[in-house]
Design a protein that fits this description.
Blueprint: H1 2-40, H2 44-47, E1 58-61, E2 64-67, H3 69-79, H4 83-86, E3 88-100, E4 103-113, E5 119-130, E6 133-142
Parallel strand pairs: 1-6
Antiparallel strand pairs: 1-2, 3-4, 4-5, 5-6
């Protein structure tokens, strides 16, 4: 009887772990979907709500490392000043993997359909759960 109880407890624990991880991934996908919609509406401030609003945010792109939420937003505004420049964003998510409790990486591809010429690339972002919300704390994008 003890073995059956132990086996049931182990199965329940594994199922709870799998459900929690699935919920985390669903929540992360929701953040990315909200960002996709905001970007496609040239709402860069709305897009940035998916990022950690901190001077410790890191963005690594073709120009090197940018530190901080405000500077990252300023760079986006400079590079994508109009709807013609921001276009319509879509993602292909290739992998979402747990790094540790409260942290995941996401690897994927982005596709911008734009009037000024399409732009595509790859990204790897790191999400961390901060104050109950999933936020991007580091972003490496190249295209």
């Amino acid at each position: 009887m003890k073995h059956i109880y132990l086996l049931a407890l182990i199965c329940f624990s594994l199922n709870s772990f799998a459900q929690t991880e699935a919920e985390d991934k669903r929540a992360i996908r929701e953040v990315l979907d909200t960002q996709r919609i905001a970007w496609s509406n040239n709402d860069l401030e709305g897009f940035m709500q998916g990022y950690w609003k901190s001077d410790s945010l890191k963005f690594y792109g073709s120009r090197g490392v940018t530190y901080g939420w405000e500077q990252t937003l300023a760079n986006y505004k400079k590079g994508y000043p109009t709807k013609d420049h921001s276009g319509t964003l879509t993602f292909k998510l290739n992998d979402i993997s747990k790094i540790s409790e409260g942290s995941y990486w996401v690897m994927g591809e982005f596709f911008l359909k734009r009037n000024v010429g399409d732009a595509n690339g790859i990204f790897m972002i790191i999400f961390r759960k901060i104050d109950g919300e999933w936020k991007i704390v580091a972003d490496m994008s190249c295209g």
